[in-house]
Amino acid sequence: MRARTVAAGLALLLAAACSPPAPPRGQAGSAAGTACARPQAAPGAETPTTIDVIEQAYFCLLTHYYGAATLDARALLTAGFAALTRELNRDGRDLPDAVMPALTGDRKADWAAFETVYRKLAGQVPGLRDRLAVVTLEAMVAALGDNHARWAHDAERPPDYYDGDGYGLGLEANADGPESRALPPLFVTAVQGGAARAAGVRPGDVIESINGSAPFIDGAAGPAITALYPRYPEARPVRLRLLRESTGRRWTVTLEPGLYQRDLAALQVVRSKLEGDVAYVRVSGFGPDAAKRALAAIARLRRGRTLTGVVLDLRGNGGGNPAEAVRLLSAFVHGKVTGYQCAADGTCESFRTDDTVELVNLPLAVLIDGGCASACEHVGSAVKDLRIGTLVGTRTAGAISGPAEPYLLGNNTVLSFPARHHLGPAREVVDRIGVPPDHHVPLTSRDAAAGRDPALRRALTLLRK
Question: Where residue 34 falls among pLDDT bands split at 50, 70, 90?
């Protein structure tokens, strides 16, 4: 899920290898001749990506991906070739033979034509061979347009990394990239540490420009925003023009990405407290035992007192195990379907509540936002469709295509993608659309600066009516 690290996929005990279509070439390479297998254990050391690995991934997608039967493979090859030519041009090495071969729609024949041109080009630029392979495969996976399809490779951690450390600028904002639904202005919602804390950046500070570029273009989040979230080993400094509305001060800071220690409280999957007579429980992800811990927190807060309701805070929850989402929902309703996983032919399997879970029997308000993705949206759509409670905040991410299954490639990298897609309890598509709140309560820059939480305040008011 949006989350969904390679480690999570590798933790599964997976089935035996599946056989792909026969390679289109007469002499298959070692990677292409191997089925795209479900990993049995952590992979070995990563080796270079080659055209044989790209071939293996291509046929793996065309065999196992959701909707593979109707997928136009030409779109994958075109995206891969476009990325290859961009990389050649970026290096100043554009080649006269870098012309896309004619494609017919025959998957094997098209691959053979693509491979012939690819090998010819790569042979002319041996110093770029590894990079060309990487960008080609990345682009082919991206061409699926599926938020749960990814190719995990070149996984590195910073030196001296400690479990739970963060890497980057040390801040979060109300938008995380060009796909964000956030509206202007762009502002800091949290300071986690690192360069942002050292520079005195505060929640509520408005980011007027990023490396000289406007964060919003015609009211929509622009590509400049991605610079706020660098990943290791990216280390280019990021220049921000800031406005502190409370004082009218404008200034510029340059923040260098780096490793920083995160607050221990922020690493807790479940946090809870009393808000008067309401139990407030924040669940940051649906990892192992997340539902059990959330329900234990409610029981602890309830002990010796009468509660009027529960606020379940799922803002920023990137998802995880759908079974944990179902278990948490089962504490608020029994005998219901909470969602479906459907194949491309329309056949579906249902998620049903676990009616052995004891009902909480309290009114429920759920806080959601654009950071609520995947299994989190499973909860949100079920709460709305089944009328379990009230949703407060802003629309969820719309990133719940389906649970990703991992496949091991010949260079010890992992390709993961869904074989089924998620539908809500009313069989509605949530992916790319999200779940709308019943009460739209966005956070503003002034709220963030003052430490106010208008969504929580609205939820408490609704539960106390």
Answer: low
